[in-house]
Amino acid sequence: xxxxxxxxxxxxxxxxxxxxxxxxxxxxxxxxxxxxxxxxxxxxxxxxxxxxxxxxxxxxxxxxxxxxxxxxxxxxxxxxxxxxxxxxxxxxxxxxxxxxxxxxxxxxxxxxxxxxxxxxxxxxxxxxxxxxxxxxxxxxxxxxxxxxxxxxxxxxxxxxxxxxxxxxxxxxxxxxxxxxxxxxxxxxxxxxxxxxxxxxxxxxxxxxxxxxxxxxxxxxxxxxxxxxxxxxxxxxxxxxxxxxxxxxxxxxxxxxxxxxxxxxxxxxxxxxxxxxxxxxxxxxxxxxxxxxxxxxxxxxxxxxxxxxxxxxxxxxxxxxxxxxxxxxxxxxxxxxxxxxxxxxxxxxxxxxxxxxxxxxxxxxxxxxxxxxxxxxxxxxxxxxxxxxxxxxxxxxxxxxxxxxxxxxxxxxxxxxxxxxxxxxxxxxxxxxxxxxxxxxxxxxxxxxxxxxxxxxxxxxxxxxxxxxxxxxxxxxxxxxxxxxxxxxxxxxxxxxxxxxxxxxxxxxxxxxxxxxxxxxxxxxxxx
Length: 527
Hints:
With 527 residues, the chain is an alpha+beta fold. It is 52% helix and 10% strand. α9 (158-180) packs parallel to α20 (477-494), α11 runs antiparallel to α12 and α12 crosses α14.
């Protein structure tokens, strides 16, 4: 039985168990067991009373598989029509529900985390979304996030991007040839794995350099770890808290296994790098591991422990490696599955060939920045094919925050925003269910007729939220987008690609949109 089949079997049993649990024993609803603010909210889907007496209603509104439908219901009825938050039933949090804030409250994300009135935090929701506490035994790794300080210092400025572009361009070229091949005859491959492995190699080249980034055993270990962590986290989020303490560690075993294997490989490398740094503070490769050592060293000798540093590198596999893999693979699938696929590919190839002919080619960040059609194709895919239904979590730590319509939210309530619905709202985007690759670049093709300011993939707005918004917008987005544009350019310049079967379809697993990992593509190297 494949790992995915095992997950599906477990998930089915879990769903039945959850339905029975809600039918027989869940009379203490979110509105009864949490702060009084819940009594002032409408609930997405059927009422709690209906759910307690109707098995059909339970199945229809099961928070395991129907989160998109439930959120859409609440978004249309309450967020848009009334400008009010609503309660989204979920077994994920102790309160039994999330408070889904309306788009009108997105400006709250611009406020300081701590004011004289209240303090809120985004970290708890991020950590629990993939259930890191069940996998990482050292809480300092995910609560004292020194590794993201490295991202902010070393992977944001235009100078940083100029320094990193030649390295990722070189690794992408090698990776495409090694993984996709150079054969000029058509062959069918797993598109999800092929796209992911190319991105993983280039991103891990920046994490810990050569030759480790090309180690097939390490690459496969990291891929298995990311899959186990993401799917396992989604499953744990669907387990009722009453039994999560028992079942959560069991679900996490697979991710812990691959994490231990990854760390075992990394520890000797970290030990050598620490010795190198201690001997000469200015020596060492120009990669993330070497950048991180002096930053963690300032926090004390315990932070230089090789096992802890290795765990910090592992914690970056999701945001800095496999999040990029997710977006790039979906972008390829969205392009190949669109009705105007041929025109899109031709338009991309024309731009990439023109830009890559400039001095420095795709190894020069200023040239990569000029790939506006490629940027638009990626931004449009991120708009349509997000990783989750709701996002931008916030938990109030102290005090209370006014979220509009007279509601003040204190501790014990997790808030979120309906990001999927915002991205697919016809009031925000014309024909929003259609993948329009050049939606964000078309109006700027003729500079004389261009109106307004160009929105690039790194641009966060109240209607484009994959990289978050406000004070906690993703600091690594410039690196992520640069790598994806380089990869897309290399693909359209060197390969003919076709989608096997229809457009890739995804399914909801709690709040997570599980990618179509079995999507097949046909490829051949161009002359």
